[in-house]
Amino acid sequence: MALLPFRKAKSSKASASDLEAFLKGFSIEVMPRTAAKIEDFRSLLPDGTRIYIAHIDGTPIDEMVATAKRLAAEGFPVMPHFPARIIADRAMLADWIARYQGEAGVTQALLLAGGVDAPRGDFHCSMQLLETEEFDKAGFTRLHVAGHPEGNRDIDPDGSLKNVMEALRWKQEFSKRTDADMAIATQFAFEPEPVIAWAEGLRAAGIDLPIHIGIAGPAKLQTMIKFAVACGVGPSLRVLQRRARDVTKLVTPFEPTEILADLARHKAANPDFAIEQVHFFPLGGIKATADWTAEHGGAVPRAAAATA
pLDDT, tens digit, for every residue of 150-163? Predict the structure, then answer.
């Protein structure tokens, strides 16, 4: 699939109300070790914020389930990762599902291949997980799958979008035969143009799953570049590289204000634009991202509102 051309508007400014509307219902991603540093998420995040729990290779399932249980007890909908390549077999998959549901009441899941080069067991992609009897019987109410606005070299080594598009077409068809609500949760990007072109290209290809766009929360520039390289973020890495040439900006956090303003403006002008929500990767810390959203129109936590 060739990306549709996107002509940048003369002004990239978005009104405060546009940005506020675009941030409504944002989600955020944590890991057990980063979540443990937060005393109470209710002091940072609005009620109902979906919290993804990233399952990094080597993290014990006990820590994942304990984190899910803790967040659910604080009143947040929890969406743990199910990385196909680190799940040994259907017995392990069934155990994970049973523990998440039985101990933490989890009803949502993000399925992805996982960040390892080779499968550790029977599964190599999220589609194989979706086809299992274990997921079919689990009765999850919401399932998210991965999206890559700038492609994925692990899936398409030639730099094309051929394989990732075939996978998304398969997931589009799967969405028609599941009772779960489905959406695409994407890798983060730093430029709006590739994101808009990709989203419009999906619609042109008949893929109409809602998109939850990945955005990196405020972080030091060096941290951003490290994660961008590690995660394979390609074309929009140049935004960080340009900034890195200005030594005066190396000591100030890089914030997502510009890309979100552009996307918010585009959404306001095109209500049918497929991006439905924003999903934050808090690369500079959970509190820093939560504070940024509150300062830029996102809903404030109940505890903060009570003391305002």
Answer: 876 677 677 677 88
